[in-house]
Each structure stands twice: as structure tokens, then as C-alpha cells.
Amino acid sequence: MAEVQEKDKKPSEEFTDESEEEDSEEEAKLKYERLSNGVTEILKNDAASCMTVHDKFLALGTHFGKVYLLDIQGNVTQKFVISSVKINQISLDESGDHVGICSEDGKVQVFGLYTREGFHDNFDCPVKVVALHPQFSRSNCKQFVTGGNKLLLYERNWLNRWKTVVLHEGEGTITNIQWRANLIAWANNVGVKIYDISTKQRITNVLRDNVSLRPDMYPCSLCWKDNTTLIVGWGTSIKICAVKERNATEMRDLPSRYVEIVSAFETEFFISGLAPLVDQLVVLFFVKENPDQVVTDEESRARPRLDIIQPLPESYEEISSDALTVRNFQDNECRDYRLAHAEGEPLFYIISPKDIVVAKERDQDDHIDWLLVKEKYEEALMAAEISFKNIKRHDVQKIGMSFINHLVEKGDYENAARKCQKVLGKNMELWENEVYRFKTIGQLKAISQYLPRGDLRLRPAIYEMILHEFLKTDYEGFATLIREWPGELYNNMAIVQAVNDHLKRDPSNSILLKTLAELYTYDQRYDKALEIYLRLRHKDVYQLIHKHNLFSSIEDKIVLLMDFDKEKAVDMLLDNEDKISIDRVVEELADRPELLHVYLHKLFKRDHHKGQKYHERQIGLYAEYDRPNLLPFLRDSTHCPLEKALEICQQRNFVEETVFLLSRMGNCRRALQMIMEELGDVDKAIEFAKEQDDGELWDDLISYSIDKPPFITGLLNNIGTHVDPILLINRIKEGMEIPNLRDSLVKILHDYNLQILLREGCKKILVADSLSLLQKMHRTQMRGVRVNEDSICESCHATILPSEMTKSFSVVVFHCRHMFHKECLPSQGTIPGLQFCNICSAKRRGPGSGILEMKK
User: Fold this and answer.
1) CA separation for the pair 424, 446 (Å, rounded)
2) RING-type domain spans which residues (predicted)?
3) What is the mean pLDDT of residues 762-779?
4) Lowest mean pLDDT among 11-15, 418-422, 793-797
5) How far from chain centre, in Å, is Cα 658?
6) Confidence band (pLDDT; 50, 70, 90) for 290?
7) Mean pLDDT lowest for which of 115-129, 201-215, 225-239, 554-568?
8) Can you give the C-alpha Rg of the chain in angstroms?
């Protein structure tokens, strides 16, 4: 529960709210300040008895019979001396142009603040309350009510005289009246009544719950939430009453409206005032001293409380609760407190005899204040950023700076540096101050990664200071900054010199060497950067060459590049032949044949003709370093000298390559002989004979194999589809033992049967297709051909049909749909009765043969 206290003994000081438990994490909902200025002077010698709030001004009544009009700061604008005794009630209409006042000596005055019209009367008993019609300024609404021993309605008639009507009497003193629209609510000793002035009917009677309480000591509090909702607070009970229209079928002799109590509950303390706050209630409680409890701190016993509660049907939920230290609260009773509120504005005035306190909803500035007090800087910064247009007392950047200072004090340098990006923005002066502060506390590393490096840039000296700091203590961090920071941020030459000084002490430090290469790159001294990258065998060397077109610089470094990464180097050289020629590369690699072979091999793979003049040289390179690719090279190359290749292969006894070269040079018999004699591989020999498809080679193969049973077996198993097996079988010597002869003969027979089946199957398919096509052709040729007056003779181009159909005519129509007059066709050929279309006969015969002859 928040506690509101004075800052010091000066009566005009504002209120401050403090938590009874200083470590409370719950923020107060309202803030408080004492209404001072003119009010302070008034209450020195007088005491407040009542006050009414209008959105334009305040009207304050005192115990000495005076009424003061105040502005919202408490300055007196007008003063009226009404009586010498207590002012009981002040009422204002909605426009604020008319005021009604009643006092303890029975005086009632209703007058215009800006006109002379008015009502003045004296009664023989005290008048406790007065209420003007909300639209009193309108000529047809000149009505007001007063309450003492009876409730009187005053209404001005057309003769400009005041007519009086008694609305109610006989239930004791009327202590409160609230008029809203057409409804008048009042409270007396028995309960609360509501009167509908439009229908002139009393529509309800809400009885008082606790009749043991004296109504003059614990008066009823009334307030309208809207035109149909009345809130009643009496003693410790609160009721919320809704005025509703009665169904026409239920009326009979009943009022047209009725009241339903939608919420009723008991509170802990005595109610001194009520006010609505959206769907919640603001309640002013009088805390009565407990006579059974010994309390040493007198001030803590009877301070009034201002609570915000959420009404429920039969209970309530407390939202906030503040104890108010008003002046002389020890001497006050429940009846001495009043709660007044401004319509449509969350302003609440707590009135006591010697003090007036204003309660306001806390705004965003107040919320930020609370967050800062609780050291919730991040939330305060977020709240300020979201509501930067609405805050008046705070500055987003100042809050951010407080947050940074707090983080630094806590030693959370990383987060403090991160927040600098967001808080300092484009303020260079603040940035530089923070950098120097981080330097003072030895935390330059923390802020380095968050320094501005875009459009906003600090002085180069700032960046250089940080780089020097890293260079002294952290080579890795220094290298990271050099990679991340643009070279324009600092003096590149100064940093290069500093790195070189460190390299003198540690010349093989790879991190410094790499960083120096990057600095040279920023400075466009690519040759120096390239030397370092090659020395380090760094992967970025190829990217550097491509990015900055350094091919002229690497012509004498090709061997180094190849030693570093052969694949990448060769790909780069081949992709840029226009910049480094093939001849130049071959010249550089002349002393490193193994690297030269890698280059020429990839060149040959890309294009078989580009390096043709080096094909003779490649034979030896393949033979020396890459024999598996020699045979594919010999097969694909058309520029390779075969004699040279044969010589190298024979010298190295490369049988397969020699066989290929002999066959390519036309010496197939010698090639076959090498396969049989040196390789002894009948399958390869058979494959070779199949490739050459030469009958003499088959004879040589059979002759060579006839005295070698294993070879005969191989031939029997494989030559069935190329050579008649009978030729081989007939040449086998009688009595020769041949391994797996039976299986070989079975295979031959099986292959033969398979060939026969394939031939028969093909024959059946051929016959079926031929028959199908013949039937299709027959159906096509049997179809009629339409001849009409639009058809023309393909020879004379005249109409086929004569204009006079009575004359005889003869027409020949061919299957190709060409038509002729019979007399336009040439004489028949050698075959009697067979004619051909002149147009189609030059192409083919058959379809153009005559199919129809028309005569008439």
C-alpha cells in the first residue's frame, strides 16, 4: 500500500508517495499533490467544508460562510461572503454559469456568475444540500432542489416566480443530493431514493444497511457513473444501482423505471467519498482507530486512504491503496472528508478541513520516474522510446545515459557498450566522451565493436587509439577489427607502421602477417599483400588475384601458386588464358614436370585442341606421372605423333597402350599377337577382334588358339554371334582335351536356338505389320472420292464436271486425290489398263494409280 507524505513542514509543498515497504515492486496508480497558492492562505484562518469541481474552475466553501472560486492551481479568482456560518453545499450546472449555495443558518442562494438573476431565501432550519438542474442555464430548466428536513423542488414559472413542490419528507434530515439528467437521487436517515422528474415518479428506495451508525457522523456518499448508474456508499457498504426501463406489459400502476442492484459488497473501512474511474471505483476511506489495540505511532492510526477497486457482483478486487497524510488528520472524523472529481477527467480532490489534496492518474513521466527509482533502466528507456511524443519531463537520451552509467557502475561493460549504439545515436561528442570513459576504466575492447562505422564516423584518432590498444594486448581482436572496420576510418599508414614494428619482434606471427596483408590490400598495395598471402599459403590469395586483377604480378609466381593448391591454381590459370598465356605457364613450369603435367592434363580435358603442340610432350608426362590417363589421352588426341607414342610405350612395355597404337596404325595382326602372347587374355583378344570386325583377324585368332585348350573354350563361349562355330569345331584336333567343352557346346546350341527364336519372332511381327498395313491401304483405297463443281483437272485446270451435265464425259480420279479428264491423260503405258498420276508418278508409283473412272 502506497503512503503519501509531505516533503517537509511547508504547507504549500507537493505530496510525494512512498511505499510502506520500500522494496515493494508494485507501482502506484495515482500521484498526489497539495492544492496550494490561494488555498493555503484560506485554510490558515478558515476550514474547508465543501467543494465542487467544474472543468473550468473550483468552488470552495468554508466554515466561516465564504465561497471562493479557484483556478485549478488554487488561485482565488472570486470571493463571495454568503453567511457567517458553515457552507454546507455548493452546486454548479453543467455550463458553470450558475451556482447554488446553502448554509447551516438556512440561507439558500442561486445566482448566475455572469448575470444578475438569482434566488435568495432564508429558512428557519439548516439546509444541508442544494442541487441545480444540470441544464439550469436553459430557460425551460430553471429548477433546483434543496434538502433539510424535507426535499423541496423549486421551479420558475412563466411569470418569473418560483414555485415550490415538496418531493419528500418525514424520514429525517436529507444529507446528500445528486442530480443527473432527469434523475434526482437523495439520501436521508432511512435510505436512498431516486426521483424521475420527467414522469414525476419516485422509482426506488434503497435501504440503509447498517442502521447502528449515526447518519450525521457517517453520511451517505452518492455519485452518478452515467445517466443510469448510481453508486451508493454508506458506512462500509457499496451498492451499484442500474436504472432500467420497465416492460410496458408490467407497468400497470408501477413507475416506468425500476432499479436493479448489480453489485453490492462490504469494505474494510468507512466510506467518505466515491468517484467513478472508467469501469473501476475510486473510494476515499476513513480509517477509524481501533480502541482495543495499543498503537504507539499516532499518525499511523487514522490516515485516510484512497483506494482504486474493481467492483464484482458480490465483492471487489483492490487495484491500489494509498494512505494520505493530510493536515490534522488526527482530529478529523468520517464526515469531515469529501471526495470531488472532475467529469471526464481523472482528477480527484480529497477535501478535509485544513487540507485539499489532488490525486491524478500517473502519466508516462511518472511511470518512468518510478522505473528509474527502482533502477529498471531498460524498461524506463523502452517506455520513453514508445511514448517519446507524450513525455514532458524526461528525455530519451538522458534516460539512456543513466542506463549506461548504471551498467558501468555494475561492471556490465559489454551491455553498457551495446546500449551506446542505441542511446548515443549520431551525437559525436557523446560518443567520444564515452570512448574516453571506457579507455579510463580499461574497457576499450568492450566498446570497440559498437563504434559507428557508417555515415556517422568519429575522428580517426579514436579508431587508431582502439586499434593500438588491441595491438598491444590482443592480436586476434586486432585482426577482427581490421576485417570489420572500413579502411577509411583510420590512418592506414600509421597502423601499417605499428604492425611492422610488432613484426620486428615476432616476424613469423601469422595473425599479424595476415592482418598486414589486409592493410596492404586496403592501401591498394596488392603486390605486397600477395607476397604475404603466398608466404602464408593463405586461401584468400586466389580471391585477391581475381578481385584486383593481379595476373601480371603472378607470372613469376606460378610455381608457388601450384605448390599451394594445384587444383585452384590450374583452374585460375585456365580461366584466365587471355591474361596469362599457355606458353607462359608451360615455360614457368618447365622445371617442374609433375606440375606441368597437371596443368596440361586439365587443359586437354577442357579442350582437346588448345594445347595440341604440347601433345607429344604430354605422352612422356602421362607415361611418367599418370599412366591410367595415358590410354584415354591416346584415344582422344588427334594431334599425338603415333610413332613417338609407340616408341615410348614399347620402351616402358605398356602393352595395352602399344596394342591400341598398333591397331590405330593398322598393324592389327601384331596387336592381336601381343594380346595373345604378352597378355594371354583370350577375352581381350576376342573383344579386340569384335572391335576390328575383320575375318582374317578371326582366322588368325582361331589359328593361334587351336592348340591351346583354354583359348578354345573362350572362343567357343564368345564367337557364336560373329563366326560360325562349325569352323572352329572342325579345326579342333581329335582327342584334344578341352576344359568345359560340354558347357561350351550347350551354350553354342542355346545361342543358336535363341537366334532362331528371334528370327521367327521378327518374321511374325513383320508378317503381322505387313498384313495390317495392307488392310489399312485397302480400306483407304476403297473409300469414295467426292467430285463436285469446284474440282478441277490437274492437267488443263478446267472444271472437272462439264457445265452441261447432259453431255457425256469421262473423268479419272487417282488415290492421291488428283483428278484429270480422261482425254487429258497421256496414253497408257506398257501395262494395259494401268494408268499413273502425272504429278505423283515422278515420285513414286502405287498411290497414284488410277482408282476410279467416271463416265457418262
Assistant:
1) 16
2) 793-841
3) 90
4) 11-15
5) 70
6) low
7) 554-568
8) 59
Tell me the pTM: 0.57
Positive/negative CA dihedral, 469, 475, 480, 484: positive
Q: Is the dihedral of CA 647, 649, 655, 661 positive or negative?
A: negative
- Say yes or no: 484 and 497 in one domain: yes
* Same domain, yes or no: 386 and 369: yes
Q: Percent of the chain having pLDDT more than 70?
A: 82
Same domain, 524 and 490: yes
Does residue 270 surpass a pLDDT of 50?
yes
Residues contacting residue 461 through CB under 8 Å, at least 6 positions apart: none
Q: Residue 119 — φ and ψ, nearest 5°? A: -130, 130
Backbone dihedral angles phi then psi of residue 246, each to the nearest 5 degrees: -85, 145
Angle at Cα 713 formed by Cα 710 and Cα 718, nearest 5°?
A: 130
Q: Residue 631: inside a domain, yes or no? A: no
Beta strand 143-147 with 150-156 is antiparallel
Give the residue from 419, 441, 458 where a domain finishes.
458
Grid cell listed for 396: 530519451
Are residue 408 and residue 467 in the same domain, yes or no?
Answer: no
List the Cα angle 534/535/540 in 5-degree steps: 40
Q: Say what the alpha-carbon torsion angle 169, 171, 172, 178 is, to the nearest 10 degrees.
A: -70
Gap between the Cα atoms of 419 and 532, Å rounded: 39
Tell me how far apart the alpha carbons of residues 542 and 569 are, in angstroms, rounded to a whole number: 8
Taking a C-beta distance cutoff of 8 angstroms, is the pair 362, 29 a contact? yes
Give burial (CB, 10 Å; 0-12/13-18/19+) of 827: exposed
pLDDT in tens, 309-324: 999 999 999 988 989 9
Q: Do residues 307 and 316 make contact, with C-beta atoms less than 8 angstroms apart?
A: no
CATH number at residue 445: 1.25.40
Distances, alpha carbon 334 to alpha carbons 176, 216, 437, 664, in Å? 15, 10, 59, 126
Classify burial at 209, counting beta carbons within 10 Å of its beta carbon; exposed 0-12, middle 13-18, buried 19 or more: middle
Cα atoms in the Cβ-side hemisphere of radius 13 Å centred on 564: 20
* SS3 labels along 100-148: EEEECCCEEEEEECCCCCEEEEECCCCCCEEEECCCCCCHHHCEEEEEC
Quote the number of domains for the chain: 2
Distances (CA, A) of 143 to 88, 100, 227, 535: 19, 11, 18, 105
pLDDT at 355 over 70: yes
Does 183 reside within a domain? no
- Whether pLDDT at 477 is above 80: yes
Beta bridge partners of 258: 244
**CB-CB contact of 179 with 132 (8 Å):** yes
SS3 225: strand
Q: List, in order, residues 6 or more apart from 49 with CB less than 8 Å away.
A: 61, 62, 63, 86, 87, 88, 353
The string of DSSP letters for 405-471 reads HHHHHHT-HHHHHHHHHHHHTT-HHHHHHHHHHHHHTT-HHHHHTTS--SSS---HHHHHHHHHHHH
Q: How many CA atoms lie within 13 A of 836 on its CB side?
A: 13
Using CA atoms, how far apart are residues 766 and 367, in angstroms rounded to an integer? 99
- Sequence-distant (≥ 6) Cβ neighbours of residue 183 within 8 angstroms: 194, 195, 196, 197, 224, 227, 228, 230, 243
Cα distances from 744 to residues 687, 705, 717, 719, 724, in angstroms, run 18, 15, 6, 11, 14
Q: What is the pLDDT of residue 847?
A: 47
Half-sphere exposure of 326 (CA within 13 A, CB side): 35
* Chain centre to alpha carbon of residue 450: 24
- Domain end: 503, 538, 573, which one? 538
820-828: long-range contacts at Cβ-Cβ below 8 A with a sequence spacing of 24 or more?
A: 820/793, 820/794, 820/795, 821/793, 821/795, 821/796, 822/853, 824/793, 824/795, 824/796, 825/795
Cell numbers at residue 159, please? 411569470
